[in-house]
C-alpha cells in the first residue's frame, strides 16, 4: 500500500501539509514519490522495532493469548519495546473487548470505531470495522451513524466531549443517557462504554504519536474499510526510514546540539532534586505556576508555524477524511484550551478530591467488575516503568521526568495536583516536547514526524515510545476521571 | 500516666447527653477529630477548618481556624487530629504535603503553630502519640512517614516504607514505641519508633490499597475479663452461621473453632479498597487474621467502638454513604447502620473513648452529624433469619432461630430426615450488649436413599431404545424399561403410544372375547405374538395403508395367518355400534393384580365405572373423523390386514405383577382413525412431561415417534427440550446416549452440535510432531505413523491400539487376532485385551 511508487493514488493516501501543497501547486511537475516506510511505524526505523521483536517469545505468547485479531499488529509491535507494559495493556484491552461485560461484542467494536473516528484515526477504524463484522455486527451500521440504533447514537455527545473537552462533562449528560426510556443506558453499560471510549481516544493518541503504519495486509476489502489515509505529510516521510534519520546519525550540527540538550536536562533534574530541600516556593507561587503552565499550553502549538494547520486548511483535510466523519457528529468540535482567555472560569479539577486510586477505581470496579484492577495495573505499570536509563546515561532516576509528563498532560485537561510544583514542568520539558505532548494528547491527528523528531534528539526510540505510553495513559486517566466524577455526582 | 488521663477524661459521673442531630458546614469535610473533653469537634476539609462545640441540641460553631485573606494550600486539609492529652493542640495534614500544628492557646487570631514542609507529596494522615505530648507522626503519598517532635523545627526521624503512598499511620495504644502504617500496595507495616532503618514486621493485608487502620482500644485488664472458654463456644456458633449463609457445602474458609485471645491488645483492624475490614492479631509472632468483615464498598475509615469489644464502625469513600457498625464475629450483617449522609462519609469519630453510644461523622455533603446508637437502624431486624440451602448431593440444610425450630413439634419425624438436626448453641454472653446474637439451629436433611438419586435417569437413558427397531417394539421396550424402574406412569404412556400409533398391526393374538387370564403367563406370549406378526417395521399405519392399497384391492387382505376371525361384516357392525370408549384404563396404582380384559360390549357396560378424562380419550370420535364414502370403504377393506382384524382388544400384561396393570380394550374401528388424530393429545402429553421436569420422556417420545408428532411442536420448543436433555445426559457422563440423541434429532441446531470440534490431532509416533496434512504419513520423517500390527499396512481409518503396549492396527484385524490369541500381534509379549 505504501509502496505505490509514484502513482498519484499513492500520493493521495497521504495528507499534504500546507507547505507541500503550495509547492505542489507551483510546480506541477514535481512527482511526489511515496516514501518507503516499512515496518510498523513511520517514525521509528523498522529494525529498531523488529530487532527487539524477534527475540521476544513473550510478546508472541501475549499476542496469542490476548490479541483479538490473532495477529501481531503494528501497535503491538511498537509497544513490544516495553513488554512489561504490553502485557497489562493487552490484558485490559482484551478484557474490555472480549470478556464478560455488559455490552454485546459488536457494540464494543462500534464504540471503538466511534471513538477512533473523533481523531480520524483510520488505522483503528479499519481494525475495528473488521472486528465488528467478525463478531456479527450489522454491516449496515458501518454506513454511518444514521444507521445505528438511537441508543448508540446517544453516545455521540459524551464521545465528543470526552475526546476533546472532558471537563465539560456534567452529571446532566450522564442523566440524559441513563434516564429511563426506550434508549436508556444502564450504568454498567455506560461505564463500559466510557472505558472503551477513553481507551480508544488515548490509543488514537498513541497511534498518531508513534506514527503507526497501516497494516500491511488489509484483508479482503469489505467495502467499509477506509482508504488508508496516512496522516503524515509526505514531506515528513521523505527521509527514508530505512536509512538512519539524519538527526539520529548526527552527521550535522544536531549532535552537538542534542548532546548538550541532554546534558542540560540531566543537570536540571539534578538541580531540582537538590533544590527541593532548601528552596520552597510560596503557595501563591505554586498556584501561579500551575496557572502559568496551563496558560502557556495555549501558545505551545502556535509557535510551530510550519506545521500548525490554520483552521481553514484543516477543514480541507476533512474532505479527504470524509468517510471517517460518518461515524461522528459535529466534526468541527475539537480540543479547546482548558484555560481560555476571556472565558468564564472553569473550576480546576483537584486531583486530591477525586483520585483514580481512591474513587475512580472503586466506582469503575463496582459497575464493571474487574476492569478496575486491570486499569489500575496498567496505570501503575506505565507510571513506574523505568529502566533507569536516559539516552546514553544509565542509572538515572527518571521518576521526576515521568511525573512531569504525566502531570503536564493532566494539567492540559485542567487537573491539578496540590502537591506538585508545576515549575518542574517548565524546567524539565523543553518547548519542542511540550509541542509534541500537546499535539499528541489534544489533537493527535496533527502529529508529524518532524514533531516526533524534534524533541529529545538524543533519546532512543524506545524511550520515545515510553513517552507516548505515558501520554496515552495520562490522557485516558484524565478522561476517565472526568467521566467517572460525573457518574459519581449523578449517583449522589 | 495513662490511667490518670483516663480518670480526668472519664465522664465524671454525668453521662454524655445529646441527640441525633446534624449541622450544615460551608464546604465538604475531609476529616473530623474530637477533643478529649468530648464537647468539641474539629472539622477539616479543602476549604473548611472549624471547631464546633457539641451541645445538647445542636452544634455551635466555636472557632474558624481558616484565617487570612488568601487561601493557602497549607489549609487544604486531608486529615486533622486533636491531641488526646492536650486540648489546645491540633495537627493537620495538607494536600500539598505540609504538616501544620495549631495551638488554640495562642492569643492571636491565627492559631497556626508550626509548619513542617518535609513531605514531597500529599500527606494522607497525621497522628499524635497517645500519651506523649510532643510526638507527631505523619504518613505521606511519597512513601515516607515522619516523626516530629513539636519542640523541634524538623522531623526527628524518617521511616521509608519502600513503597508508594502511605495511607494511614496509627500509634499503638498499648505499646509505647509501636506504630502501624498501611500502604497503597496492600501492605501493613509495624514499626518501632526508635528504629527508623527498617520495619519490625510487614504483612500483606489487602488486595489493593489499605486505606485505614485502627488499634483495638481495649486494655489488658479489659481483656482479662473475657474468658477464653466463652470464646471457643462463640467460634463454634460462628461456624454455624457461616455454613448456613455460605452457598453449598461446608465453607472452605470456616472460622477456626477456637479463637484464643488472652488479650486483644495486639488487635489491629484494617480496611481496604477490596471492600474488606480485617482484624489482625499482631501480638503473636506472625500476624494472624482473626476476623474479616465484607462490606459493600471500599473502606475509608475504621474505628473500634469504645467499650464494645467486637464492634467497629466503618465508612466508605465511594458509592455507599452509610456508616456501619459491625460486630466482627458476625461479618455478614451490620449491627447498626446510620444513613443520614447524602454523600460519601469522610470522617468518623466516637465522641468519647468510653461512651459507645455517640458517633460523630463528617461528610462530603457538607454536614456534620452526631449519631446516637439507639437511633441507628438495625439491618438485623430486617434480615431474614432463616437460611435454606441445597448441597451438592441433594442434601438440604436449614438454619433458623432455635426458638422457631423448637416450637415446631413435627420436626423430627420429617420423612427424609435421617440425620439428627445439628444444634449449635450459643450461650448468651452477659457482657455482650448485642442481643441479636441469638442461638440458631441448623438442621441438615438428607435425601432418602434412592429418592434423590437420579439413577433412574441414567438407567432409563441407557436402556431406552430410540431407533433402529419398529415403533411398536420401541414403545414396548421402553415401556418395559420404565416399568422395571418402577415408573409406571411412564410405562403406561409408552404403551398407550404404541396403541395409538401402531395398534393396527400389533394387536395381540387374542381374539375377540377371549379373555386373557390373570398372571404373568400371558405376558411373554403376548410379546412374542406381536413380534412375530409385526410386518412393517417402523412404519405407521398410514404407510401400511398405502402399501396395501397398491397391493391389492381385495376386501379381505389377510397378510397374517392368525388374523382371520372377524369378517368385514363384523367390522361394519362394530363400527355401526356406538361404543363410546375405546380405551379403558384399569386402576393402576397397585390395588390389585387383576387384569381386566374388556371387549367392546364389556366396555360399554363398564363405562360408568371407568370414567376417563374427557380430554384424554374423546368419546364419540368416529362420527367426526371417519371419512364417509369410498374412502371409507377403502379403509374398511384395508383394515383387516392392518389390524390383524381379530383383535379388538389389546391387552397388556404387566411385567411386574405386583404392580398395577393396564388393560385396554380397543375397538376395531380405532385403527381407522387418522393417525394424527391423537397428535394434539400426544403433544400435550409431551409438554406435560417436559414441564414436570422429565424432559427425558419428552425427548425420547419425540425421537421415537419422529415425524408423527414433530410437526405439531414448534421448532424452538423441540430445540429447547433437546438441549436440556443433552445437557443432562452430559452431566451424567452419558456421552454415548447424548451423541445418539444428537444424531437422531432432526432439529438442525441440535444435529450441528455433532459437527463442532470434530478434528482429532495426531502426533507422529516417531518424531512426536503433529501430523498436519494426513493422519497416517508424517511430513517430517516421511514415515507411516500408524501401521497395523497384523497386516503391516498403513491404517487409514479406525485405528485401535492397546493402551498397555501401544501396538494396534485395523479394528477388524485386531479383533480377529485377539479372538485367537491373547498376546499382542506385534510380538512384544504384552497380553492385550480387547473389550
TrEMBL record, chain A:
Chief place where the protein resides: cytoplasm
Residue ranges the record marks as coiled coil: 255-289
InterPro entries xrefs: AhpD-like, Sestrin
Alphabetized GO MF terms: L-leucine binding; oxidoreductase activity, acting on peroxide as acceptor
Keywords tagged on the record: Coiled coil, Cytoplasm, Oxidoreductase
Subcellular compartments: Cytoplasm
UniProt keyword annotation of Nucleus present: no
Pfam families, alphabetized: PA26 (PF04636)
GO cellular component, one term: nucleus
Gene Ontology BP terms: cellular response to L-leucine; cellular response to leucine starvation; negative regulation of TORC1 signaling; positive regulation of macroautophagy; regulation of response to reactive oxygen species
Substrates-to-products reaction catalysed: a hydroperoxide + L-cysteinyl-[protein] = S-hydroxy-L-cysteinyl-[protein] + an alcohol
Similarity comment: family membership: Belongs to the sestrin family.
Protein name per Swiss-Prot or TrEMBL: Sestrin 3
Taxonomic source organism: Suricata suricatta (Meerkat)
Gene field: SESN3
UniProtKB/TrEMBL annotation, chain B:
Gene Ontology CC, one term: GATOR2 complex
Region: Disordered, residue numbers: 562-582, 624-648
Key word Iron-sulfur present: no
Molecular function GO labels: zinc ion binding
Any single GO BP term: positive regulation of TORC1 signaling
Keywords: Metal-binding, Repeat, WD repeat, Zinc, Zinc-finger
WD repeats: 116-158, 258-290
This protein's record includes keyword Metal-binding: yes
Function: Catalytic component of the GATOR2 complex, a multiprotein complex that acts as an activator of the amino acid-sensing branch of the mTORC1 signaling pathway. The GATOR2 complex indirectly activates mTORC1 through the inhibition of the GATOR1 subcomplex. GATOR2 probably acts as an E3 ubiquitin-protein ligase toward GATOR1. In the presence of abundant amino acids, the GATOR2 complex mediates ubiquitination of the NPRL2 core component of the GATOR1 complex, leading to GATOR1 inactivation. In the absence of amino acids, GATOR2 is inhibited, activating the GATOR1 complex.
Family: Belongs to the WD repeat WDR24 family.
Record-given protein name: GATOR2 complex protein WDR24
Organism encoding this protein: Suricata suricatta (Meerkat)
Gene responsible for this protein: WDR24
Amino acid at each position: 500500500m505504501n509502496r505505490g511508487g509514484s502513482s498519484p493514488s499513492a500520493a493521495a493516501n497521504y495528507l499534504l501539509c500546507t507547505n507541500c501543497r503550495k509547492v505542489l501547486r507551483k510546480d506541477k511537475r514535481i512527482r511526489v514519490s511515496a516514501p518507503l516506510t516499512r515496518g510498523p511505524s513511520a517514525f521509528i526505523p523498522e529494525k529498531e522495532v523488529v530487532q527487539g521483536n524477534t527475540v521476544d517469545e513473550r510478546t508472541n505468547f501475549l499476542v496469542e493469548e490476548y490479541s483479538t485479531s490473532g495477529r501481531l499488529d503494528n501497535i503491538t509491535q511498537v509497544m513490544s519495546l516495553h513488554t512489561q507494559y504490553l502485557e497489562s495493556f493487552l490484558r485490559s484491552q482484551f478484557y474490555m473487548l472480549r470478556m464478560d461485560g455488559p455490552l454485546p461484542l459488536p457494540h464494543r467494536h462500534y464504540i471503538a470505531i466511534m471513538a477512533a473516528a473523533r481523531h480520524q484515526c483510520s488505522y483503528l477504524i479499519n481494525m475495528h470495522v473488521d472486528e465488528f463484522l467478525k463478531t456479527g455486527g450489522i454491516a449496515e451500521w458501518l454506513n454511518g451513524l444514521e444507521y445505528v440504533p438511537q441508543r448508540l447514537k446517544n453516545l455521540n455527545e459524551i464521545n465528543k466531549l470526552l475526546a476533546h473537552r472532558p471537563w465539560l462533562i456534567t452529571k446532566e449528560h450522564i442523566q440524559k443517557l441513563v434516564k429511563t426510556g426506550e434508549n436508556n443506558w444502564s450504568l454498567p453499560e455506560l461505564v463500559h462504554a466510557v472505558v472503551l471510549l477513553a481507551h480508544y481516544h488515548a490509543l488514537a493518541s498513541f497511534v498518531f504519536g508513534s506514527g503507526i503504519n497501516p497494516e500491511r495486509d488489509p484483508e479482503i476489502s469489505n467495502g467499509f474499510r477506509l482508504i488508508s489515509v496516512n496522516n503524515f505529510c509526505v514531506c515528513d516521510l521523505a527521509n527514508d526510514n530505512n536509512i538512519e534519520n539524519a538527526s539520529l546519525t548526527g552527521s550535522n550540527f544536531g549532535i552537538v546540539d542534542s548532546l548538550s540538550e541532554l546534558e542540560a536536562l540531566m543537570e536540571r533534574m539534578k538541580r531540582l532534586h537538590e533544590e527541593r530541600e532548601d528552596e520552597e516556593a510560596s503557595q501563591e507561587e505554586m498556584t501561579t505556576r500551575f496557572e502559568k503552565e496551563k496558560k502557556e499550553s495555549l501558545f505551545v502549538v502556535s509557535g510551530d508555524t510550519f506545521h500548525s494547520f490554520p483552521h481553514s486548511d484543516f477543514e480541507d483535510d476533512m474532505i479527504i477524511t470524509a468517510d471517517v466523519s460518518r461515524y461522528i457528529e459535529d466534526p468541527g468540535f475539537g480540543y479547546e484550551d482548558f484555560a481560555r482567555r476571556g472565558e468564564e472560569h472553569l473550576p480546576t479539577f483537584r486531583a486530591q478530591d477525586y483520585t483514580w486510586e481512591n474513587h475512580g477505581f472503586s466506582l469503575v470496579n463496582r459497575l464493571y467488575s474487574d476492569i478496575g484492577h486491570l486499569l489500575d495495573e496498567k496505570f501503575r505499570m506505565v507510571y513506574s516503568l523505568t529502566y533507569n536509563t536516559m539516552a546514553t546515561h544509565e542509572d538515572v532516576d527518571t521518576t521526576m521526568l515521568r511525573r512531569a509528563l504525566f502531570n503536564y498532560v493532566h494539567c492540559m485537561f485542567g487537573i491539578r495536583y496540590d502537591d506538585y510544583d508545576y515549575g518542574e514542568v517548565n524546567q524539565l520539558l523543553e518547548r519542542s516536547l511540550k509541542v509534541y505532548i500537546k499535539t499528541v494528547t489534544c489533537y493527535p491527528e496533527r502529529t508529524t514526524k518532524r514533531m516526533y523528531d524534534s524533541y529529545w534528539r538524543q533519546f532512543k526510540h524506545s524511550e520515545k515510545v515510553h513517552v507516548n505510553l505515558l501520554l496515552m495513559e495520562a490522557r485516558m486517566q484524565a478522561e476517565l476521571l472526568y467521566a467517572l466524577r460525573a457518574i459519581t455526582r449523578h449517583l449522589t | 500516666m495513662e490511667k490518670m488521663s483516663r480518670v480526668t477524661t472519664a465522664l465524671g459521673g454525668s453521662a454524655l447527653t445529646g441527640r441525633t442531630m446534624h449541622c450544615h458546614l460551608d464546604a465538604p469535610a475531609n476529616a473530623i477529630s474530637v477533643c478529649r473533653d468530648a464537647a468539641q469537634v474539629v472539622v477539616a476539609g479543602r476549604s473548611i477548618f472549624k471547631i464546633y462545640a457539641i451541645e445538647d441540641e445542636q452544634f455551635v460553631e466555636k472557632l474558624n481556624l481558616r484565617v487570612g485573606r488568601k487561601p493557602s494550600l497549607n489549609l487544604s486539609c486531608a486529615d486533622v487530629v486533636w491531641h488526646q492529652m492536650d486540648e489546645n493542640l491540633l495537627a493537620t495534614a495538607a494536600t500539598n504535603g505540609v504538616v501544620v500544628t495549631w495551638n488554640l492557646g495562642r492569643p492571636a487570631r491565627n492559631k497556626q503553630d508550626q509548619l513542617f514542609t518535609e513531605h514531597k507529596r500529599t500527606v494522607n494522615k497525621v497522628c499524635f502519640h497517645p500519651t506523649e505530648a510532643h510526638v507527631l507522626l505523619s504518613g505521606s503519598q511519597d512513601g515516607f512517614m515522619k516523626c516530629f517532635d513539636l519542640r523541634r523545627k524538623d522531623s526527628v526521624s524518617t521511616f521509608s516504607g519502600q513503597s508508594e503512598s502511605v495511607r494511614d499511620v496509627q500509634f499503638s495504644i498499648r505499646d509505647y514505641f509501636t506504630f502501624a502504617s498501611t500502604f497503597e500496595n496492600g501492605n501493613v507495616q509495624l514499626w518501632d519508633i526508635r528504629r527508623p532503618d527498617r520495619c519490625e514486621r510487614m504483612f500483606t493485608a489487602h488486595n489493593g490499597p489499605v486505606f485505614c487502620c485502627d488499634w483495638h482500644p481495649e486494655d489488658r485488664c479489659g481483656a482479662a475479663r473475657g474468658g477464653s472458654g466463652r470464646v471457643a463456644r462463640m467460634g463454634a456458633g460462628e461456624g454455624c452461621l457461616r455454613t448456613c449463609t455460605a452457598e453449598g457445602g461446608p465453607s472452605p474458609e470456616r472460622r477456626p473453632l477456637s479463637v484464643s485471645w488472652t488479650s486483644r491488645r495486639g488487635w489491629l483492624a484494617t480496611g481496604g479498597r477490596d471492600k474488606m475490614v480485617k482484624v489482625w492479631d499482631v501480638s503473636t509472632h506472625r500476624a494472624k487474621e482473626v476476623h474479616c468483615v465484607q462490606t459493600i464498598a471500599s473502606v475509608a475509615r475504621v474505628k473500634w467502638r469504645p467499650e464494645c469489644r467486637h464492634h467497629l464502625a466503618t465508612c466508605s469513600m465511594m458509592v455507599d454513604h452509610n456508616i456501619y457498625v459491625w460486630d466482627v464475629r458476625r461479618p455478614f450483617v451490620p449491627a447498626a447502620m446510620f444513613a443520614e449522609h447524602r454523600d460519601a462519609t469522610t470522617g468518623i469519630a466516637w465522641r468519647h473513648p468510653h461512651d459507645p453510644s455517640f458517633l460523630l461523622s463528617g461528610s462530603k455533603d457538607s454536614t456534620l452529624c452526631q449519631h446516637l446508637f439507639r437511633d441507628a437502624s438495625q439491618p438485623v431486624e430486617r434480615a431474614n433469619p432463616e437460611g435454606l440451602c441445597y448441597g451438592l448431593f441433594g442434601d438440604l440444610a436449614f438454619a433458623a432461630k432455635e426458638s422457631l425450630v423448637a416450637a415446631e413439634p413435627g420436626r423430627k419425624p420429617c420423612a427424609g430426615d435421617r440425620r439428627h438436626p445439628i444444634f449449635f448453641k450459643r450461650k448468651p454472653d452477659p457482657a455482650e450488649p448485642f442481643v441479636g446474637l441469638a442461638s440458631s439451629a441448623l438442621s441438615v436433611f438428607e435425601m432418602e436413599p434412592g429418592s434423590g438419586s437420579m439413577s433412574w435417569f441414567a438407567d432409563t437413558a441407557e436402556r431406552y431404545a430410540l431407533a433402529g427397531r419398529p415403533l411398536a417394539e420401541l414403545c414396548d421396550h421402553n415401556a418395559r424399561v420404565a416399568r422395571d424402574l418402577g415408573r409406571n406412569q411412564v410405562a403406561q404412556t409408552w404403551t398407550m403410544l404404541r396403541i395409538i400409533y401402531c395398534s393396527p398391526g400389533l394387536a395381540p393374538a387374542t381374539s375377540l372375547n377371549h379373555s386373557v387370564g390373570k398372571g404373568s403367563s400371558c405376558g411373554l406370549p403376548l410379546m412374542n405374538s406381536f413380534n412375530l406378526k409385526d410386518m412393517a417395521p417402523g412404519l405407521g399405519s398410514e404407510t401400511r395403508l398405502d402399501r396395501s392399497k397398491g397391493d391389492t384391492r381385495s376386501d379381505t387382505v389377510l397378510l397374517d395367518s392368525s388374523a382371520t376371525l372377524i369378517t368385514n361384516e363384523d367390522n361394519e357392525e362394530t363400527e355401526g355400534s356406538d361404543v363410546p370408549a375405546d380405551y379403558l384404563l384399569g386402576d393402576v396404582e397397585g390395588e390389585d393384580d387383576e387384569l381386566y380384559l374388556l371387549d367392546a360390549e364389556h366396555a360399554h357396560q363398564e363405562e360408568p365405572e371407568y370414567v376417563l378424562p374427557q380430554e384424554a380419550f374423546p368419546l364419540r370420535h368416529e362420527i367426526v373423523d371417519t371419512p364417509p364414502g369410498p374412502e371409507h370403504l377403502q379403509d374398511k377393506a384395508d383394515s383387516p390386514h392392518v389390524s390383524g382384524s381379530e383383535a379388538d382388544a389389546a391387552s397388556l400384561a404387566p411385567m411386574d405383577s405386583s404392580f398395577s396393570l393396564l388393560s385396554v380394550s380397543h375397538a376395531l374401528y380405532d385403527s381407522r382413525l387418522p393417525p394424527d388424530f391423537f397428535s394434539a393429545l400426544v403433544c400435550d402429553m409431551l409438554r406435560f412431561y417436559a414441564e414436570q421436569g422429565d424432559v427425558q420422556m419428552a425427548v425420547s417420545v419425540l425421537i421415537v415417534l419422529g415425524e408423527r408428532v414433530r410437526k405439531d411442536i414448534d421448532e424452538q420448543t423441540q430445540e429447547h427440550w433437546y438441549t436440556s436433555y443433552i445437557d443432562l445426559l452430559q452431566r451424567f457422563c452419558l456421552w454415548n446416549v447424548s451423541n445418539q440423541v444428537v444424531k437422531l434429532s432432526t432439529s438442525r441446531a441440535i444435529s450441528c452440535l455433532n459437527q463442532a470440534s470434530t478434528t482429532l490431532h495426531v502426533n507422529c509416533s516417531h518424531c512426536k510432531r503433529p501430523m498436519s496434512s494426513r493422519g497416517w504419513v508424517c511430513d517430517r520423517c516421511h514415515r507411516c505413523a500408524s501401521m497395523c500390527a497384523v497386516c503391516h499396512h498403513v491404517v487409514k481409518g479406525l485405528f485401535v491400539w492397546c493402551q498397555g503396549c501401544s501396538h494396534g492396527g485395523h479394528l477388524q484385524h485386531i479383533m480377529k487376532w485377539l479372538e485367537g490369541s491373547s498376546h499382542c500381534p506385534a510380538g512384544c509379549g504384552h497380553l492385550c485385551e480387547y473389550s
